[in-house]
Design brief:
Length: 315
């Protein structure tokens, strides 16, 4: 007797959109873990971030990407290239937008340009309207109609990544458009980011949260030392339980002396606050006590040159 069980599906899907539309929040919601750092400031995500979601019916490898924007300098060019390259490498693209609570349901020029670039990739695209918890439901239908007429989307899915509304449906829709096949990753895999990478991102997240506007775009974090010699094997610790110790030294790179002064703060109070909050997040990540030593270094105009990007790990 033939089986009535649905075939197992798997594949890759890229999260594409302007800065701050909620791509990283959605990735974390889908994964059920904090894989990508999140802040209200644009250009938080700088690299492609893999988040693997495995369920009995299938496995989706989501690629979170930097927001597509127009900006000057090599760092901006690098981030846009990362996003567009990811769109060309996957089985399916999720184009995230956020509705305006007041404006007419028109497609702004920035999203028009992204749609043109996605059309050139010739990949199937699902439109994801995020942040629906912030608008009147009556505004959704005109917006959906406007986008339906502008591009041949496979589907249009309204969601709230913050509350989880519609996210399960989105997963099922995406999975239904992926090819039949076995798991691409071990079911225990959540991301391809090494712990050192995650540590650097957690520190940068706290810089984004604590400092003024001029610093975040010009800062990068490099982990110089990651000593696990006192780390204890994790068996099955209780929630919040920490075992052993990891010693970490990291450098915060900025472009100007004035930015260094902001990051350090009066009598070192800003750097202390950044380090304290980052350490707590890293301890939850690693399941160990953490000794975190942060230094601040001025690397003039690193974000404006390819040499500067390579030096700080953006390749």
């Amino acid at each position: 007797m033939p089986s009535s069980r649905a075939p197992h599906r798997s594949g890759f899907a890229a999260l594409i959109g302007r800065p701050n539309v909620g791509k990283s929040t959605l990735l974390n919601r889908l994964a059920g873990e904090k894989i990508a750092i999140v802040s209200p400031k644009p250009q938080t995500t700088r690299n492609r971030i893999l988040g693997v979601v495995t369920r009995p019916e299938g496995q989706i490898a989501f690629l979170d990407t930097p927001g597509i924007h127009k900006g000057r300098g090599e760092l901006s060019r690098y981030m846009v290239d990362v996003a567009l390259n990811a769109a060309g490498e996957v089985d399916l693209v999720l184009f995230l937008i956020e509705p305006s609570p007041t404006a007419a349901p028109a497609i702004d020029p920035a999203n028009q340009e992204i749609l043109q670039k996605l059309g050139a990739k010739k990949k199937p695209v699902v439109l994801v309207i995020n942040k629906i918890d912030l608008i009147e439901k009556a505004l959704l239908l005109p917006l959906i109609d406007t986008y339906q007429k502008a591009f041949p989307f496979l589907e249009i899915i309204p969601i709230s990544a913050r509350t989880g509304d519609g996210v399960d449906r989105l997963f099922k829709v995406v999975l239904g458009h992926l090819p039949e096949g076995p798991q691409l990753f071990d079911p225990d895999v959540l991301t391809d980011q090494a712990e050192r990478q995650l540590v650097a991102e957690y520190v940068r997240e706290q810089i984004l949260r604590h400092t003024r506007e001029e610093v975040p775009y010009s800062c990068a974090v490099v982990v110089d030392h990651f000593d696990e010699s006192e780390r204890e094997p994790r068996k099955q610790p209780k929630p919040g339980e920490l075992a052993g110790l990891v010693r970490i030294m990291a450098t915060i790179h900025v472009e100007r002396e004035s930015q260094k002064a902001i990051v350090i703060g009066k009598k070192g109070q800003m750097l202390k606050a950044i380090g304290t909050d980052a350490r707590k997040a890293i301890e939850r990540l690693l399941g160990t006590h953490v000794y975190l030593d942060l230094r601040v270094h001025v690397e003039p105009r690193w974000s404006e040159t390819q040499k500067g990007l390579r030096k700080l790990g953006y390749e």
